[in-house]
Amino acid sequence: MGKRAFILRRLLHTFLVLFAILAILFAVFRLMPGDPTAVLIDSQLSEADQKALLAQWGLDQALPVQFWHYLQNLLTGDFGISFYYRQPVMQVLSGPIWNTLVLMGSAMGVAVFLGVLGGMFLGWRRGSKGEKLGVVVALLLRSIPIFWLGILLLMIFTYWLRLFPTGGIRTSGYEATSLWSVYFSWDFLHHLVIPFATALLYYVADPLLIMRTSMLEIKGEDFLEMAKAKGLKDYQVMKHCVRNAILPVITFVAVWSGFAFGGQVLLETVFAWPGMGREIVQAVIRHDYPVAQAAFFFMSFIVVFMNFIVDLLYGYLDPRIVYR
C-alpha cells in the first residue's frame, strides 16, 4: 500500500472514530442521572407550556431523531444552545478555549521542549551525577500534586514577596478592547506567570523521563556503533540517537494535547483561571449537556487528529517505518 492509500485509510478511520465519539457522548449525557430539562423549564408553568418549551428545544423527539438533527447542525458548525446561559455553545466556550490554550498550550509547549532537551542529555550521560540529580528532581516534580505546587508558589511569590496577583486573568476593572489587549497586555502576562510556572514545573517531568528512557534503549543499537566506527563525532552520533528516541515522546504529546485543551481543573481552581476545565465541570453539574458535549468532542478531536499527524510523522522521522 502506498503512502497516499495509507493516508486515505487513516482519514477514513479518523472519521469513523469521531462519529463513534459523537454517538457515545450524545447518549451518555442523555442517560446521566438527573433531569436536564429542569434547567430549561420552570415547574410552575402549565403542562402545555412545558411541552411547548420541550418542542422548541427539540427534546420531545426520539433520541435517534435528536441525534440526526445534531449531526446536521454540526455540519454547519452549530453545536446548539446552552441550557444554562441561553447562548450559542461556541459563544460560551470561545473565552474558556482561548484562556486554556494560552495557559496550557504555552506551558506544555515549553515543557516538551525542555523535557526533550533534558532527557536527551540525561540519557546520553547515564551514570553521571547530573543524570542522577536530574532524575530525582523530575520524579519529585511529577510526584507533587499540581494544586499543592500552585499553592506553594502562590505563598512564596504572591503572599510573601507580593510580586504577582492571586489569580484570575486580569485586574478587576481592566477593560480589554481587542484580542491583543486581552492576551498580550502586561496585565494579562502578569497574571499568567505563576499559573504558567506551575504547569511547566509539573508537566516537564513526563517528556524528560520518557526521552531519557528512550535514549537509553536506542544507545545500544547497532547503527550507533556503526556510526562511531565510521569516526563520527559524539554530537553527530547523539543526533542520530535523538531522531529515533524522540518517537515515543511524539506519541505521548499527541495524547497529552487533549488534556491541554481540556484544561487542568485543579490548576484553574487554585488560580481562579476561567478555562475549559472549570467550564466542563460546571456544565456537567448543571446538566448543560450541549456545552459538555462540545467541550468533550473538541478534546477528543484534538487527540484523534494529533494521532493522525503522528502516524504521518513517524515515516518521516524513522526511515525504517514503511506505510502499509
Give the biggest beta sheet.
Answer: none
Shape: flat
Total count of strands: 0
- Specify Rg, calculated over alpha carbons: 24 Å
**What is the first-to-last residue Cα distance?**
5 Å
- Tally of helical runs: 16
Mean pLDDT: 81
What share of residues is helical?
Answer: over 70%
Order of helices and strands: HHHHHHHHHHHHHHHH
Instruction: Estimate the strand proportion.
Output: under 5%
Low-confidence stretches: none
Structural class: mainly alpha
Structure description:
- The protein has 324 residues and is mostly helical.
- The protein has a domain at 94-258.
- The chain contains 16 helices and no strands.
- The model has no long low-confidence stretch (mean pLDDT 81).
- Helices cover 74% and strands 0% of the residues.
- The chain has helices spanning 3-31, 37-40, 47-57, 63-75, 89-124, 129-143, 146-160, 179-183, 186-203, 205-218, 222-229, 234-245, 247-262, 265-270, 276-285, 289-317.
- The N and C termini lie close together (5 Å).
Short key terms for the protein model shown above:
324 residues; mainly alpha; 16 helices; flat
